[in-house]
Amino acid sequence: MKSLRKIITRSILLTAAIALLLVTINLSFLTSFMMKYSSNHPLKYAISDISDGLLNSDGTYELNSSATILMNKQFVWAMLIDREGQVIWNKNLPEDVPLQYTLADVASFSRWYLNDYPVSVWEHPDGLLVLGEPKNSTWKYNITSTENTIAHIPGFIVSFFFLNVLIALALALFLGLWLYRKLKPLYNGITALPKKEPLTLPTGGVTGEVARILNETSVILFQQEQQLAHRDQARTEWIAGVSHDIRTPLSMVMGYASELEINPRLPAAEQNQARIIREQSQRIKSLIDDLNLASKLEYHAQPMELSRVSPAALIRGVAVNFINDGLTAPYSLSVDVTEETNSPILLCDQALLHRALTNLIDNSIRHNPRGCNITLSVTNLTTGLVIKVSDDGKGYPPELIKNSGGLDESLLLGNHGLGLIIVRRIMKIHGGKVVFENLPDGGCTASLVFIS
To answer: What is the distance between the alpha carbons of residues 291 and 418, in angstroms, rounded to a whole number?
Structure first.
């Protein structure tokens, strides 16, 4: 749920930021718009300059060049009305503009329009100068307001801005809550997918299509999980059945081979052949046991008998078993423990750990035919302890070390058989891990890491 809250919070903040940005953009646009288009309105000093440029020479009026330039920038016609309302001078005057005006006419067009022409007026020494713009070029309506209204405009603008901010935040909060309600079922459904159980998310609304896909996906995953479970169960049962069926005839082969091996009436060569048959049959039996154990460990079908064990005592027991079974030169096996390593107590399945250590020692012996020195040791850590099986042989292949932490156990198989896979699975069900390393001065180390 923390991830979902983080998404919703970010969505609310993003929506609020977008809303505030829109308000700012709107205000900026309005300001620039007013500044741009209001600048086209004729300035008083420009009209004044045009009026000053209209000169009277012995009753003849003439607009000088500078005034003409100013006029042509915005106005299309001009006229001068004397104090009796008669037009005494004009320039480009349209035909629909009268030549005689009353005071009422002057008052009307000064405030509004003259025959739909927007006009501007200025007092001239000889009358009233009227400058006309093209029709439909200027919106000219005066807005009258009280002083009290003008005084409250700044406060109104500030209030309007904060109102927009509040509306933007409310909108962001609303959208965030709406998004939360819509996404919460989807989030719950996605987090429930690893359980491989069918989902029944509602398929209405804007997220209905996604919910439908999640429902279908959950059904597919559930069916696949059921199929895998049935397949795994069938494979486990098949391995167990085959192992059971092979053991009986294999035991008979081993028994007869043992009798032939010690039969004094057989020649030495035939007794040796019987010994080879017995040893290879024993190896087949061990492989079958490994296969059966690996299968049970993979599917958690191997029951664990937990007990409190001293790691130092455990590795001593493993070493004694190998020595008693006749470990001879060119191999040697030693135990490196200290007083500190005698005190920790490990909660584990002693038989399975004994099997893991046995597999690692067998692996050192099998892959170093010229002999090696094997050492068992225990190291205490602040986070747990480590049991190491080291040798001074030729070491592990680089590809095994590189890929030992991956999910593909076939890389551990190679010519090591199931031994290392069983070690890894035993450590996995104990909540630990196995680390394979080659030593700088030659040899290798397999570390069984237990986390407390």
So the answer is: 7
Q: How far apart are CA 14 and CA 169, in angstroms?
A: 10
Beta strands in 109-201 (DSSP E): 113-114, 117-124, 127-132
Strands 113-114 and 60-63: unpaired
Which of the two residues, 38 and 386, has the higher pLDDT score? 386
pLDDT at 261 over 90: no
For residues 140 and 108, the answer to whether their CB atoms sit within 8 Å is no
89 SS3 class = strand
**Are 72 and 50 a contacting pair, CB within 8 Å?**
no
Bridge partner residues of 124 (DSSP): 127
* 210 Cβ contact list (under 8 Å, min separation 6): 186
Element (H, E) at 133: none
User: The tokens of 292 are what?
Assistant: 């059966």
Cα–Cα dist 316/336, whole Å: 9
Shortest CA distance to 436 belongs to which of 404, 406, 411, 412? Answer: 404
Domain boundaries, the chain: 2-39+145-184, 44-132, 196-302, 306-451
Tell me how far apart the alpha carbons of residues 354 and 314 are, in angstroms, rounded to a whole number: 7
pLDDT tens readout for residues 378-396: 988 888 899 999 999 998 8
The token pair that represents 147 in the structure block: 């002083």
Amino acid at 151: A
Q: How confident is the model at residue 146 (pLDDT cuts 50, 70, 90)?
A: confident
What are 53-62's contacts with CB under 8 Å, separation 24+? 54/78, 54/80, 54/89, 54/124, 54/129, 56/125, 56/126, 61/88, 61/89, 61/126
Note the helical H segments in 193-341: 208-261, 268-298, 311-324
Percentage of residues of the chain with pLDDT beyond 90: 20
Nearest-angstrom CA–CA distance, 140 and 113: 8
The long-range contacts involving 102-106, CB below 8 angstroms and separated by at least 24 positions, are 106/81
Could you tell me which CATH class the domain 306-451 is placed in?
Answer: alpha beta
So what's the pLDDT on residue 88? 92
